[in-house]
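PROTOCOL LOG
Step 1. Enter all chains and additional molecules of the complex.
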Amino acid sequence: MDNRTGFAPLRVAVASGKGGTGKTSLAVALALSASASVRVRLVDLDVEAPDSLAYLPDAVASGERRTVEIAVPAVDRDACDSCGLCARACRFGAILVLPGVTQIDTNLCKGCGRCVRVCPRKALTERPVEAGSVQSYEHGSLSVIEGRLRPGDVRVTAVIDGALSAASGIPADLEIRDCPPGATCPLTRSLRGADYAVLVAEPSAYSAHDLVAAARVVREMGIPGGIVVNKAGASSPELDAAIAGSGLVPLGSVPFDADLAREGADAKPWRMDGPAGPAVRAVLDALKALEASRRTA
Ligand code: SF4
Ligand code: SF4
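Step 2. Run joint prediction.
Step 3. Record the structure below.
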């Protein structure tokens, strides 16, 4: 991949509807391989269970761990007249108003600030609450930014935003995002601003079902993308149909291989001279083509 020093990095989201498909293995392999020639930042956005660093045990922390905070409201009971406008404004059911009682469940609050804005008596004020943290690491020439949700917290998107914001401050030619599984808000947030999406699936009806949902999100966000099939070999008409209807490009497949599965369980990165090498190279070739078209656009 050509070096685009001075330009915005190419941002690539690696995702999968279903967990355990090999998404992180692919993200790490892409990052390690590309970092031999360009500046790469790998952003772990699977903030409920970040595990990119398990594949990179030599990574060294750089800089301070940053706390991700959101502003949650607190009520001034003397000023509140129990009008209930704040509870009606809250889309997350975090506020209960009864005559003489206004309760805010700070664990449900997403920090959107709507309640504060609608309160006619200025009875709500905001205070910071920790949702998680972001830490940067260096692994040779590869930068790794890990978002980590505070145990028990549910404000996943705030931590994803925090990790992406921290990553944007680290110079890179290529950004690889290890996205959360599923096809809901955390995935949508992780895909924001991405130039390309790679979805990882495996030959099973369950994975095919989740691929359909994740591909729909990618399509609706107008992001071009491709699919890598991991643990390939077994016939799966459901997966074939899901890929055909996805609107995404089949990029390659990683054959099921007992040694590779064992290495994956031990969090060993995919080797370019191993069974996964051709699929990783196929994704890198697609990214190079995309980069070339961006440069001529
Ligand atoms: S800040 Fe938003 S999410 Fe939190 S209580 Fe107010 S309206 Fe609800
Ligand atoms: S909007 Fe303000 S005054 Fe009305 S119930 Fe909520 S906190 Fe109280």
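Step 4. Note key features.
Residues 45 and 179 are 5 Å apart (CA to CA).
The first strand starts at residue 10 and ends at 15.
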